[in-house]
């Protein structure tokens, strides 16, 4: 453990590779010293028409704890038909049933991903009303708001480790679970490299082989002319199926539903795992290449004096330019392991590496005061490289002191990240219009920073922390009290584009001991009441790269966020869910005037979010499955610069979000299932002054799938239509109030899968 901490704090390529190599070699050696595996785990329940490897279908109702050991890497059993799990990874506390912890966590499985033909992570999280999908700062990145606070795609965890996921857009083919932890979580997860995630976290669990052999081939079509193919192969080998291999391959390309927007994605991922009586380990690695050409990014509304946001153009209209593109390559790997010292104490560890490269030209029309869709164009071209090393290690166990049971966990987590950046740009001097868009030649460069062919280091960040928790339970586990402390240290270094350390806000170092307190009370067998208080140390967001910002591209500082939450959870085996009330406060990043033309980005205010969340899911009657959620949010600015915006709503946070989804198996046609999802978002402000506003919007998605036996195989046809009514709407705005993104047009998805 000491060695692993040393590697994480002073990472080198050699040390990392030696650690991964030794872990891989040790796997079969340790396997020989462990006895045979226990009886196989309970089979995953299946829904009618969705069985992958059997002609028979059944619905199994069993208590999750019957075959589940909390705290490790074993996934929480899926709920009924297998699309939702009532629990997930709770940071360094591992996989937990939701009703046993004082935190709000829910998981969406690969079965839901397949049923909805969800191609990216954003397509999955739309199923939860507490999560709002947004775009990155003037680029194609999928980002999210949880409880009104932004979570950058770069701050999503994989297997509990930060910094490993592909950049900006994540394909779903390698994903087994998408786990959403709602609320402040830096105590549980440690601190992310990007400093986002105050309102919640998203963790991705990669696919590993099941006991039943799998060979699945899929061909898909997405309007307007995207065609793709995927292969998913899983096998287990050895005595009692100890060794597992899972391989996922994907390639998809073609024109999107938006005119002249072309997309291409390639993915290759492999998951190796070993499971013994006392030792369990996994090694996951992958490569993703994402390319978008002529992509529609949104509109720029930052010009002062705008009276209103104009009506959206025709849904399929592309007001971008053909020279706009992004090209992103990501390589990642993760090694995890657990070793049971005895039946009470377990050692665990993890190590991950990633390397990301991005180049691209970006441009958004900046609206003028004409009010007729007139705008000007500029260009930003970037070269971006990020290297991350993440690690975790710890020991967990349980013991009794009289009538009190203790579950303790001592854990370390850390991430070291380096980013290299260069850019060229032009002024907004080129006329365009979002309704009738002319072809604009590639804008000439008017300014640049760094070397585009070999960008120099721009930011370096090292976060590491030690956390200790103890969950005390009494009265036959009906009362559970969790207390913990995390000592978190954050080191930030900002550099000039030449690679020299910056003299303007170049260094930030801070250490803080943050507490967590939580209680769960189970007055009845199926009901849990809970409450928590969490404090967290976080690095601030990067200053925007816009004209006149003195510290553009630099990290804005380090701050403390606080959360209080109370709620109730219920699980009646057929229907489950939760109701929560919370308040989160954190310092807010904003621009502060130095003089008429110069601004400094920093922690110049406070954001206070108060909300209510409702989540219900299950199968109230056989063949009818429901997933509904709602959130009501009051997100308010306080302590703003000169009090100018005190009491205003936070940019981009709807007052309410509603999601209702359902599936119904048609009794008269075996294997036929109909599905639908309705999304409703309230209005949201597009600037801190609250003078620009996006209208509420509603979207309807419908789907149908049909499963039929084909000799000894299973053939599954799927058809999904997203935005059935072709609703025109502005979907979201970034945190700065600069970029407003239009909703996607009606889109048809077709696929056919065959399991061999």
Q: Key features?
A:
about 750 residues, mainly beta, Maltoporin, Chain A, 22-stranded antiparallel barrel, five-stranded mixed β-sheet, 5 helices, 39 strands, about 55% strand, disordered N terminus
Q: In short, what is this structure?
A:
This protein has five helices and 39 strands. With 756 residues, it is mostly beta strands.
Tell me the span between the first and last alpha carbons: 43 Å
| CATH superfamily placement | TonB-dependent receptor, beta-barrel domain
Average of per-residue pLDDT values: 88
Structural class: mainly beta
Question: Could you describe the 3D structure shown?
Answer:
The chain has five helices and 39 strands. It has a single domain, classed as Beta Barrel (Maltoporin, Chain A), CATH 2.40.170. The longest helix has 21 residues, at 13-33. By secondary structure, the protein is mainly beta. It is globular.
Task: Present the secondary structure layout.
Elements lengths: L1 H8 L3 H21 L50 E2 L1 E3 L5 E3 L6 E6 H7 L4 H5 L5 E5 L6 E5 L2 E3 L5 E2 L16 E8 L3 H4 L10 E7 L7 E9 L3 E12 L5 E13 L6 E14 L3 E15 L5 E2 L24 E16 L4 E18 L3 E2 L6 E28 L2 E30 L13 E3 L7 E18 L4 E16 L12 E18 L2 E13 L18 E14 L3 E19 L5 E23 L2 E15 L17 E10 L6 E10 L2 E2 L7 E2 L2 E14 L2 E10 L7 E4 L5 E4 L4 E9 L1
Parallel strand pairs: 8-10
Antiparallel strand pairs: 1-4, 2-3, 4-9, 5-6, 6-7, 9-10, 11-12, 11-39, 12-13, 13-14, 14-15, 15-17, 16-38, 17-18, 18-20, 19-20, 20-21, 21-22, 21-23, 23-24, 24-25, 25-26, 26-27, 27-28, 28-29, 29-30, 30-31, 31-32, 32-35, 33-34, 35-36, 36-39, 37-38
């Amino acid at each position: 453990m000491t060695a692993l901490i040393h590697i994480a704090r002073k990472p080198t390529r050699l040390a990392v590779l030696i650690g991964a190599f030794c872990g891989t070699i040790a796997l079969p050696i340790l396997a020989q010293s462990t006895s045979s595996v226990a009886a196989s785990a309970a089979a995953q329940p299946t829904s009618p028409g969705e069985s992958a490897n059997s002609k028979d279908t059944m619905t199994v109702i069993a208590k999750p704890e019957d075959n589940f050991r909390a705290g490790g890497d074993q996934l929480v059993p899926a709920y009924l038909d297998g699309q939702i799990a009532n629990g997930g990874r709770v940071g360094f506390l591992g996989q937990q049933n939701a009703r046993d912890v004082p935190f709000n966590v829910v998981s969406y499985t690969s079965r839901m991903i397949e049923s909805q033909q969800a191609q990216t992570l954003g397509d999955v999280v739309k199923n939860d009303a507490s999560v709002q999908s947004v775009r990155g700062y003037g680029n194609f990145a999928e980002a999210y708001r949880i409880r009104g606070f932004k979570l950058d795609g770069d701050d999503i965890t994989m297997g509990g480790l930060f910094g490993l996921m592909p950049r900006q857009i994540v394909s779903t083919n390698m994903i087994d679970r998408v786990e959403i932890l709602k609320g402040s979580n830096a105590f549980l997860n440690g601190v992310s490299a990007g400093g986002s995630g105050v309102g919640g976290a998203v963790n991705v669990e990669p696919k590993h082989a099941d006991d039943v052999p799998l060979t699945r081939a899929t061909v898909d079509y997405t309007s307007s002319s995207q065609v793709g193919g995927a292969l998913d192969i899983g096998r287990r080998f050895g005595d009692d199926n100890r060794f597992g291999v899972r391989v996922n391959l994907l390639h998809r390309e073609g024109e999107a539903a938006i005119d002249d927007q072309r997309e291409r994605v390639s993915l290759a991922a492999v998951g190796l795992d070993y499971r013994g009586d006392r030792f369990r380990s996994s090694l996951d690695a992958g490569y993703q290449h994402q390319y978008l050409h002529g992509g529609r990014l949104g509109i720029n509304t930052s010009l002062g004096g705008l009276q209103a946001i104009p009506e959206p153009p025709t849904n399929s209209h592309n007001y971008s330019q053909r020279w706009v593109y992004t090209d992103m390559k990501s390589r990642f790997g993760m090694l995890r392991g657990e070793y049971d010292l005895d039946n009470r104490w377990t050692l665990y560890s993890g190590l991950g590496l990633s390397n990301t490269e991005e180049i691209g030209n970006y441009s958004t029309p900046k609206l003028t005061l004409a009010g007729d869709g007139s705008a000007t164009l500029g260009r930003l071209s970037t070269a971006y490289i990020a290297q991350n090393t993440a690690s975790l290690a710890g020991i967990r166990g349980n013991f009794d002191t009289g009538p009190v049971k203790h579950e303790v966990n001592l854990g370390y987590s850390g991430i070291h990240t380096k980013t290299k950046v260069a850019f060229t740009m032009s002024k907004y001097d080129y006329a365009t219009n979002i309704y009738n868009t002319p072809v604009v030649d590639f804008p000439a460069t008017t300014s640049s920073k760094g070397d585009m062919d070999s960008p120099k280091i721009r930011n370096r960040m090292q976060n590491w922390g030690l956390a200790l928790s103890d969950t005390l339970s009494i009265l036959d586990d009906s009362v559970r009290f969790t207390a913990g402390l995390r000592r978190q240290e954050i080191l930030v270094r900002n550099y000039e584009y030449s690679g020299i350390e910056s003299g303007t806000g170049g260094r930030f170092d801070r250490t803080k001991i943050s507490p967590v307190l939580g209680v769960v009370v189970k007055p009845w067998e199926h009901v849990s009441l809970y409450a928590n208080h969490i404090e967290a140390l976080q690095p601030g967001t990067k200053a925007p790269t816009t004209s006149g910002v003195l510290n553009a591209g630099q990290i804005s500082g380090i701050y403390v966020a606080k959360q209080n939450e109370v709620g109730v959870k219920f699980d009646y085996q057929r229907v489950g869910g939760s109701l929560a009330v919370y308040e989160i406060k954190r310092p807010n990043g904003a621009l502060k005037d130095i003089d008429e033309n110069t601004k400094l980005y920093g922690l110049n205010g406070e954001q206070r979010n108060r909300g209510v969340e409702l989540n219900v899911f299950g199968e109230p009657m056989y063949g009818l499955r429901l997933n509904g959620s709602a959130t009501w949010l009051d997100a308010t600015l306080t302590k703003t610069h000169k009090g100018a915006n005190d009491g205003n709503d936070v940019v981009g946070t709807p007052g309410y979000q509603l999601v209702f989804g359902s599936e119904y198996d048609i009794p008269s046609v075996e294997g036929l299932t109909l599905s639908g999802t309705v999304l409703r978002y309230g209005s949201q402000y597009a600037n801190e002054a609250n003078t620009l506003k996006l209208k509420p919007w509603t979207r309807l998605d419908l789907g149908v799938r049909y499963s039929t036996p084909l000799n000894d195989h299973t053939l599954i046809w799927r058809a999904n239509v997203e935005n059935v009514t072709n609703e025109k709407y502005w979907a979201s705005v970034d945190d700065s109030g600069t970029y407003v993104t239009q909703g996607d047009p009606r889109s048809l998805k077709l696929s056919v899968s065959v399991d061999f």
